[in-house]
Amino acid sequence: MYLRQMSRLDPSERDRLYARHETLMGARGAARARSLGGGDRPAEALRLRACAGVLISVAFAQGADAPLRSHVAGQMASAVLNAPLPDSADLPTPPPKAGPSPLRHASCREAILAAATEHFRERGFKGVLLKDIGAEVGISASAVSRHFATKDLLLAAMFNRAAEQIAAGIASALAHSPDAATAVREIIGRYAQLAIQCRSLIVINATEMRSLPEIQREQRRRHHRMYIEELRNVIAQAWPELPVEETRLRAAAAFSLINEVIMDDDLTRRPGLIQELTALGIAASTPPA
């Protein structure tokens, strides 16, 4: 409910609930840091948010029986909470924070997509009008409609764009990996990079499916099953002793934890977040030794 219906709330109520959520997550992170002897509180907030993504994924899983889901969820949560994160000294220095780019799309269609993606992530699909998007681009609502006849079609175009980029990342990872274990790491790493670099697009892909018309909604479900199956397949090859349903749970959780973390504005400002998300995703997808 929290992930899928929040965008339907009045903006002031949505902001109040977001603030409450962040307060709770911060308190939990501080408590866990104290239990570890005063560790890195921001890192603990990252782990807890990733852990929430794991548990949400398992809660929505279909096909696996409850004992297996409970067992695997416990393993994955423990792995995420305890996996070593990359040392900040080993991470590349992030570029200085810049304001909005002065560069604009030459294509009006692409400019509309870019503006709508940011608006939909910030205010939810229901909270944005075509005239809002047009104002951002410098055109009228009727001019937006010449490129996208309805707001539904505009949202569907975003989902198609996300699907193309995710599928391309998976294909590239498989093409450049010498073995299954490497492919697991590459798929998760490339998805983490895409999620950070195209954050608004991936957040919309994860949260606005119910705003799509039914035909596009079913298409999005097929795409989602494809991503999970591709990662599940290489997890199964890397660890052939695992039951099929466990490999599917682990694959879905790896994607879900990344999606959950990038919804947090503060966490997305962490330097080295791509590498951290990759490490946590690999921890969730890897069975205990």
Q: What is the gist of this entry?
A:
The protein is mostly helical. The chain has one domain (2-96, 158-285): Tetracycline Repressor, domain 2 (Orthogonal Bundle), CATH 1.10.357. It is built from 13 helices and no strands.
Question: Could you characterize what this model shows?
Answer:
- α6 crosses α7, α9 runs parallel beside α12 and α11 (214-238) packs across α12.
- 71% of the residues lie in helices and 0% in strands.
- The longest helix is centred in the first third of the chain and has 25 residues, at 11-35.
- The chain is mostly helical.
- It has one domain: Tetracycline Repressor, domain 2 (Orthogonal Bundle).
- The protein starts with a helix and ends with a helix.
- The chain has helices at 2-5, 11-35, 41-60, 66-82, 108-123, 130-137, 141-147, 151-175, 180-197, 199-207, 214-238, 244-261, 273-285.
- The chain is globular, with a radius of gyration of 19 Å.
